[in-house]
Every structure is written in C-alpha cells, then in structure tokens.
Predict the 3D structure of the following.
Amino acid sequence: MPTRPCWVEIRTRSLEENYRFLQSLAAPHAELLAIVKANAYGHSLDLCAPAAVRAGARWLGVTSVEEGVAARALCPEARILVIGGIFPGQGAAVVEHGLTPVAWERWQLDELESAAHAAGAPAGSLPVHLEIDTGMSRQGVSPEQIGAALARFVPESPLKLEGVMTHLFAADEADGAVTEAQLAQMAEVLRRVEDTGLYAEWFNVGSSAALLAGQAGEIAALADRHGMKTMMRPGLALYGLAPQFDPGFEPREPASLTAARAQLQPVLSWKTRVTSLRSVPAGAVVGYNGTFVASEPMRLALLAVGYADGLDRRLGNRFSLLVRGVRAPLVGRISMDQAVLDVTEIPGVEAGDEVVILGTQGTETITALDHAEAAGTIPWEVFTRIGQRVQRVAV
Ligand SMILES: *Cc1c(COP(=O)(O)O)cnc(C)c1O
C-alpha cells in the first residue's frame, strides 16, 4: 500500500565509504568501533549495522541491551559494545546474546557475574569494558576508586577485563587542555591496571571529534606502553558529518578535520511531497495562532511532515525547504503532522512534487547542521529526532 509521503533515504554505500575513510585516518593507530546507537542516529539500525560490517567494522556500539539484541540479530559475527551500561535484570540477555557490556557500578559487575555463573560460563569468558570517569561526571569509576573495581577481575571470576574506557568529551575544543588532562588521568589508570597484574586488550576512547582532531597517534602511544590496542568510537562522522570544532582552531585546524570535510558523504536524505496547493488573499492567516499573516496574495503548498515526524517546531517562520530546486520558506507554525511552504515565487509547483527537508535537490543542499542552527540544537539531536513513523528506505 502506498504510504503517507514522508520518508528518509539511506545511502548505505556512503556509510561504507565513510567508515573506510575514517579507518584510514585511524590506521595504524586505532581500530574503529562503529557507533549505531539510537537506531543508528535515526538512520536505521537495520540498514546501517550490516553496512558498517560490510565496510570492515568488527565492533558496533549501541546504547542498551535492547539495542544490542537487535544488532546481534542483524550481525551475528560482530562484537557489540553496550556503551550505556546494563540495567538491573539484564545480565542474562548480555550472556545469551554475546554482548560486551560497559560497566562501572559494583551492582553491574554483580549482575553480570551471577548471570555468567547461572549460564555455566567458564572463568574469564565474559568480557567487560570498565569505564573511567575522567571528568565528565556522567558514568564511570573515578580513577581514585578504581582499585575496588579491578579487584573484581580475579582469575576464577567469569568476568574478564577486556577494555578500559573513557569518553573524551571536549576533543572539539581548540586548546586541547581538557583532553590532555583526561589522557594524563588515563595514563595513571593504565599503570594501575598493569600494577594490579591485569591485562586489558583495549584502550577504548573518544568519538568523531577525537579522531578528527588527529589524536589517534598520541592516544595509541599511551596504550602501546602497556601492550594495549586502541579503539576509537566515531558516530556522527560515520553518518557523513564532521562535528563543528571550536573556531579557535581556525585557520590551522587539524589536517584530518579538513580531509574529513572534503571526504565524508551524507548518508541520509529526508523527503516529503506537496499534498495540495491553495491561493490565499492578502490578510490570510496561516496555521495555529496566526503567527503568519499574508501581506499580499500568496500561493501555499501543504506538506506531509510535522513535528511528530521530527521537523522541529521552532523552524516555523524561520527555515526553508527545497522544492523545484529552490528554497521555499516555511510559513506559520509547524503542526504535528503538517507544515506549509510559501511557493508564491516558485512557478509550476504541483501536488505530488518532491520536497527535500534535509539533503540535496538540484544545486541546493540543506544539512543537519542547517536544521540544528535554526532550531538552536546540534545535528545529533536533529538526526535522532526523525520520527519512528518516517520510513527508512535504502537507496
Ligand atoms: C555517542 C557516543 C560516541 C560517538 O560520538 P560522536 O560524537 O557521534 O562521534 C562515542 N562514545 C560514546 C561513549 C558515545 O556515547
């Protein structure tokens, strides 16, 4: 059955090329884990997780055990890291589906250990990545308290310390001082791990910004000292967008960032169609609360997209979309399921015309960053808020 025309097109080939490009930036220092959390940043886990694996990703990153179970069904061979940690009662699913949990709370280690025992798992068979809080105050053991966590990884435990992880949350800042301080803390943590007689295979750090800031070499040097391998975790860049960096970098931004701007390809386009057209006289009110009043006779196009599809309500009267290759302003408030474009100046617009909400039409392009700037948010939020009812189609 034909559906309401509001859809997202996903170019999985672009995602594959982005992954290979990013891996070439990381090589030989780091292996990349492909972040596919939150339905692959709204791009469809079903389409994107297998594409990342085709491109060579051996590791996928998801938020939750539920997302991990979904990713496992799609990618039977991949390692799947649950970066948001586990919740009470989820240990059994971690074991059953072969997921790799990030953990930092004592009760999480208890939960995993008892689930592994219940499944008859042998010693050292359940890999865990231990998160360290190096300044974000979000999740992770503080470096001072790491001793108690490390003491859990005794040889007879089913738990194995496979990774030591942290989040470099300020890699986009020009002076790099926060990242330096975090890496100094991690150097100390890795020394503690070694002193305890443990060996973790992976030093697991950073996001797109840390990778594109060209820090893989410096990070890997730290891991090398302990015979560890480095894993980095790009998300946004995989979907074709280089994060905005602190303008303090300009004009000497990192070469890897410049290369990324030229190489990365957007994976997602978001489209709708003109539902119907009407001509209104001067004085006509458009949409809820009459926030737009026609100052002259106008031609208006109704669209099958609204805020329930993820089109930010704050874009009403302050953004434009593409129809017939031209930018047409959104007028009036955005409704839950509909929005209105002013097409007065665009000849020939007809019902059924394709409208690009995000993406390219002719020579014009609207990016997730354009949406984010108009709505006062960040591209990550723009992508992840595209509604569940918007179909994702591979192209
Ligand atoms: C989401 C996330 C990432 C990816 O971040 P990007 O900025 O999108 O590259 C990396 N690590 C962790 C822990 C995350 O939660």
User: Anything to note?
Assistant: Residues 29 and 218 are 9 Å apart (CA to CA).
